[in-house]
Specification:
mainly beta, 4-stranded antiparallel β-sheet, 26 strands
């Protein structure tokens, strides 16, 4: 049947070779080798939401594949066998793709998924619903994946709903940070764990494009990196590969990248407005390229750590 959903690339644990995972409209899941050989296929219930995630369990000795449809939560081994306790039938239809998280203190694995009843659920790695999780209810549907950050023994579970209301919770689903509605986060900016300074625990951007810091007590502060529209994209990653995260703004046709001292590392004007969030793609151990997609021109740009276009006119 015709292909459906996203293509996922995962590394086979024993060889580190890439495996290609794909789905079709008949709800079959396929695994292909790097050479294009069909390894196995599996019938599932419903189309997947988002990419397939690979994860390790039992102190790194077990390697599995994890994804969800609207109705079920799946965990498989790399041979395509469904794990005991899975698939899990969800009480309400999922509205986002799952988040797999490890608790900062114990390393306990947990799966978070939000549903059409506007609650976010947590499951353990045996497919059981976590009873200690408070099942927080959002004001609107949650369509983006839940985010999780571990800083020492502190866990931050961040839920952002479709109205951009943000809740920062602990491992039990109770309020970790009280924002009092003051987090005016940009729609196209995720949260990140702040690794630059001590101004806040979490970092993002607000609708005016200012860098937004959120402290553990809920206080917010900003840093000005220029003027941007409310639809700008923001990434926080080590662009120049110097072990210090940089600030990447993409707004309309223009991309600007700053280091921690607000020095400009790279600027470029694309031919068309960029409508898809850029991503960093690993090309070798310890090295990544910034990937920007121009949907109007159907071109891909790959930018290295020196700001050089790997393909100057787009692929």
């Amino acid at each position: 049947a015709p292909a459906s959903g996203e293509i996922s690339l995962v590394s086979e644990p024993s060889t580190d070779k890439k495996i290609v995972l794909a789905f079709d409209e008949a709800n079959k899941m396929y695994a292909f080798s790097a050479e294009g050989r069909l390894l196995w296929k599996k019938q599932i219930s419903g189309a997947p939401l988002g990419e397939v995630q690979s994860f390790t369990y039992a102190k790194g000795k077990q390697h599995h594949l994890l994804f969800n449809s609207k109705s079920h939560l799946y965990a498989l081994d790399f041979a395509g066998n469904v794990l005991a306790g899975f698939p899990v039938r969800l009480q309400s239809e999922a509205t986002n793709s799952l988040c797999y998280a490890l608790e900062g203190g114990t390393g306990e694995g947990r799966i978070f998924v939000s549903a059409s009843d506007k609650r976010t659920y947590a499951f353990d790695m045996k497919g059981n619903e976590v009873r200690s999780w408070d099942k927080p209810r959002s004001l609107d549907f949650v369509t983006r994946p839940v985010q999780h950050f571990a800083a020492g023994n502190m866990d931050y579970v961040v839920i952002t709903d479709a109205s951009d209301e943000v809740r920062v919770l602990n491992w039990e689903g109770n309020q970790r940070i009280s924002s009092n509605g003051n987090i005016n986060k940009s729609q196209n900016a995720d949260f990140y764990l702040n690794k630059t300074n001590s101004k806040g625990v979490l970092i993002s951007t607000n609708k005016e494009g200012k860098l937004l810091y959120i402290s553990g007590s809920g206080l917010t502060s900003t840093t000005d990196f220029g003027n941007y529209s409310a639809n700008h994209f923001f990434l926080y990653s080590d662009f120049d590969q110097n072990r210090s995260n940089d600030f990447i703004y993409l707004d309309g046709k223009n991309i600007q990248i700053f280091d921690r001292f607000r020095k400009v590392l790279f600027t470029h004007a694309f031919k068309n407005e960029i409508l898809t969030q850029p991503v960093f793609y690993p090309v070798s151990r310890g090295r990544q390229l910034l990937c920007v997609v121009d949907e109007s021109a159907e071109e891909v740009y790959l930018i290295d750590e020196k700001g050089r276009m790997s393909i100057s006119s787009g692929l």
